[in-house]
Structure formats: C-alpha cells, structure tokens
Amino acid sequence: MSGAAEERRRLRSEIWFNDLDEPAETAVYLERFANYGITRGELQSGRPIIGIAQTGSDVVPCNRHHIALAERVKAGIRDAGGIPLEFPVHPLQETVRRPTAALDRNLAYLGLVEVMAGYPFDGVVLTTGCDKTTPACLMAAATVNIPSIVLSGGPMLNGYLDGKRAGSGMVLWEARRKLAAGEITEAELVDQVFNATPSAGHCNTMGTALSMNSLAEAMGMSLPGCAAIPAPYAERAAMAYKTGLRIVGMVHEDLTPGRIMTRAAFENAIVVSSAIGGSTNAPPHINAIAAHMGVELDIADWDRIGHGIGLLANVQPSGEYLGEEFHRAGGVPAIMGELLAAGRLHGDALTVTGDTIEASYGTSASRDRDVIRSVDDPLMADAGFMVLSGNLFSSAIIKTSVISEDFRARFLGDDGRFTVRAIVFDGPEDYRARIEDPDLGITEDCMLVVRGAGPIGYPGSAEVVNMHPPGYLIQQGVRMLPCLGDGRQSGTSDNPSILNVTPESAAGGNIAIVETGDRITVDLVNRSVQLEVDDEEIERRWGDLRQTIPVSNSPWEELYRAHVTQLADGMTLGFAEKYHDVGRVKPRH
Ligand code: FES
Ligand code: MG
C-alpha cells in the first residue's frame, strides 16, 4: 500500500477487492462485479461501496416507487464519491401477504443480515415504507452495525370520499361497520375503499407505516424531514438524492447504528410515538429493534415514558388530517421541535447527519397549529399507550389517543373502570362466522375477545382485534365495543382495543381459558384487567382444556414458531438477539 492509502481508513469492501494476500479470490470477486460495467479500477479505488436495500417490487406496491427513487439515491452516492449496488429485500406487503406480513418481518430481517454482512458493503441505504419494511430493515441494521440510513417512500396523497378525507384503513373500518348495519352494499364497500388509495405511496393515515417511518426519523436514522414527504412530491426524490450523498459521508465517519440507536434514541421514539398518536404496532417493532441493538427496553417503558405525553398530531386515526397536511405543517421536525422546546426529548442523541437531535431539530416548529399542536395545547393530554396486566395476561396495551368521547361516556365512566361480559372467539374465522348470531345475545355490556391470534397461534400474529359489533348494535348507534385479544390490530384502526396480549393463548396465557359469559373488569387508572374467575376455577379449566393450534403450513412457519418471542418482547427470533456487530467481523473468503 502507498502512504496515502495507509492514511485513509481501510474500508470493509477492500476485504473483497483489495486483498493482496488472496489474489485468486480477489480476482473472482472483481471479474464478476465488473461484468455489468463497473470497472476494476473503480472497485479497487477505495471508494465506499453502498448497498441499496430495495423493498419495492410489483408485489410490494406500497414501496414500488422506491424502484424509481433508487436512481436518485444512486446519483447521490456517485456524486459523493461512492459506488451504489442495489439488491432486493424479501417482499413485505402488508395488505396481501397471507397469513400475515408480520410472519415475514423476521424472514426479511434474516435475509438482510446475511446480505448486508456477506457482500462487500461499506454502508447501506434502507428503503422503507409499508409497515414491516421499516422494522425489518432497522432490526438488520442493528444486528449488522455498518453505517445505515433510512429512506422512507412517503405516504400516498390524501383520499377523499363524499368531500371528506378518506384515510387508508379508516375508510375500510367504517365501511365494514356500515355493511354490517346494512347501510351500504358489498359493491359500495369496495368502491369506498378504492377512494382511499389515490396514488403511489404507503398508507396516508398515522398507521403503522407512517408511524414507523416517523419513529425511524425520531431515532435519528433518516435525514431530518424525511418521514412525511408524500410519495409523489418532488421533495421526495430530492430527499432520495440527499440520502445517497449522506451515506457516503457516514461511511467515512464510521457513523454506525450503534452510535445512533442508543437508549436515549429509543426513549425519544416512545415520546414521539405518543405525540403522533402512533400505531399499536410500534411497541413490538421498536422493542424488536432495541433487542437487536442490545439496548434494554421493555413494554413497561412505553407507559412509564410515553403515557404522560400529549397528542400533538391531528392525524387519523387519532385526529382529522392525513399525510399531506402533516407534512405541510412541518412533519416530524415540527413534532420534534415542539417536544424539544418543552424539554421532552434527549437533545444530545445523534442523528445520521452526525449532529445531535438538538442541532437538527432545535429550531423546527409547527407551521399549522390546527394540524400540529404545541405541548402546552395538545389535542389530548396523556395520550400514550397504557400497559395493562392482571390474571389474564402479564401485559397488553391500549392506545389512549383513540379512546373517543363516545367510548369514554359509554364504557369508562368517571373512574376509568368497567365490567363487561366476555364473548369469546377462537380466531378471526370464528368471529366472522358467529358475530351476527343472535343466540350470542351481544349487548352494550359485552367485550369481544379473540384468541389464537398471537405470534405462535396464528402464526405471525394477526391484525384482528378491532372487531366491530353485530349489525343490530351498530344500527342502535353502538359503533364500537370493548375488544381484547392476543393478536394485533391495524395501526389505522380507531378501536381502543386491549391488544398485543402477552402471553398469547398458544403460549399458555390465561386468555386460553376465558369462556363466553365470564365477567372481566378493566381498571385503566390502576392499569389492571381482571378475569372475575377464581384461581381454582382457572386451574380446573386448564385441566379440561383441549386447545387446538393449527399446524404449520410451511418450513418457515415451523421455524418461526419454534423461536418467536411474544408481542411484548417484539416477536423476535429469540436466539438472534445475541448476535451483534455481525458486519464488523471479517468474513472468510
Ligand atoms: Fe402498505 Fe399500509 S398497507 S403501508
Ligand atoms: Mg397492518
């Protein structure tokens, strides 16, 4: 090596392309990569080689425009002196993958770890958007720990129905209720749902996609302002270019996920999650990323750190507006600026810019107080998740920001306490088959309970806990009933369900022995949910229980079920949590 080459830090990719001790292997690496036009000179120049993890494809339409955006990322990487190499990520399309895209989050994670560590990348641009793409990418970045930056794809444009904003998901939940009440036909339901999808991009509500991309930014993993730019906007392509430019600098600075995603960054994510009315899927995903980063974070932290934060973003399902207004009002920078001004964030945490959160967001503020409120004047005080426990489960969450006035008045009373009669369903098929059965005698005093919907039971954990009441109750004006389940629900749902029950029925949770007609007492002040059945009876029911867990239908389902942790713990592959710095170990030839 020349003196000049010794002075600059040797890049990871040079293990492949500049290993003078192994000329035969090096020659093979060089000749194959050169066969689509990258010259040997470029590959041996010591310029950073940047992977672009491509999550968009024909089967992931929420992220499909990343195929075009990647061209702008590549231009940025080139202009900063790097060499871009795009590669595919296992598809994760929330709306289409059966039985659920959640099953594949960990599969995409595994694949990403191997690709990021096993190929000659010095850094990686993570293209994110649709729900599970963001956590899968960040979990892998945490495990591999080479410089990584998130480029989100952005929400789609606003949808409208009868002149009113029609948000992704929201329109479906409302149409489902109207169909059950006989207010619309099946054909009308389909038409209404189409109104909510006017352009490329991910869901335009504060569902799991916009929540997770906002939290990726809040944790410092994307450039400031990235998360909320709508997919079709010119700014989105400009952000792609700037992200490409920046990752090259991050490689030279060795600015790794481990330096950015610290405990402080995760605490910031919890605070921002409350302020935006974030998805109920955020806790399992953020806890999974933390587990892979080796940062202590547990489900109780969400209530302890997050519950006391007010709702600032007036965005559906907790509020009124959609992604376009959220972006115009300042997006995540405005939220961060408002929270910083009130001393609610760790300002010293780093971002991908190399600057602190304080330096990156300290001067940002809301540009429209109707859409993004100040900390002193929130839409709702104490809007974060409550974490509940009791004899039914060790933990479950409830999203405070979607508890409506109507729901409060009907069920909660003054003391946040109510007792209901359980109507139990074994999985979503059982719910769909029996919800309109008059023999169930469902009244306003009931709680709909679904089980067999957890990570092991389903498998993958189904988004089914937001169950609508039978049609006759909806006709009487009861548009929601309290719901409880060991599955998840869509981040776009406005149902204040008690969900993500841990442990699930298939893992021995007491939700398995609840019977229709049992009484359940919910006490939100004391964070407790109590099945009004004594311990002896619970034990007797366990003795009698013949639980049927569906068989695995594929090798991956079997592997997943053998290792998956519970929702409170992020439904990771438990054994994978011990692997760290995988991309910082020199791989064998
Ligand atoms: Fe893909 Fe909502 S379904 S973002
Ligand atoms: Mg979903």
Automatic annotation (TrEMBL):
InterPro entries the UniProt entry points to: Dihydro-acid_dehy_C, DiOHA_6PGluconate_deHydtase_CS, ILV_EDD_C, ILV_EDD_N, IlvD/EDD_N, Sugar_Degrad_Dehydratases
Family: Belongs to the IlvD/Edd family.
One Pfam family per UniProt: ILVD_EDD_N
EC identifiers of the protein: 4.2.1.9
Residue ranges annotated for the Dihydroxy-acid/6-phosphogluconate dehydratase C-terminal domain, each copy included: 370-570
GO terms assigned for molecular function: 2 iron, 2 sulfur cluster binding; dihydroxy-acid dehydratase activity; metal ion binding
Keywords, comma-separated and alphabetical: 2Fe-2S, Amino-acid biosynthesis, Branched-chain amino acid biosynthesis, Iron, Iron-sulfur, Lyase, Metal-binding
Protein's GO biological process: branched-chain amino acid biosynthetic process
Name used for this protein in its record: Dihydroxy-acid dehydratase
Dihydroxy-acid/6-phosphogluconate dehydratase N-terminal domain ranges (all copies): 47-358
Keyword Magnesium attributed: no
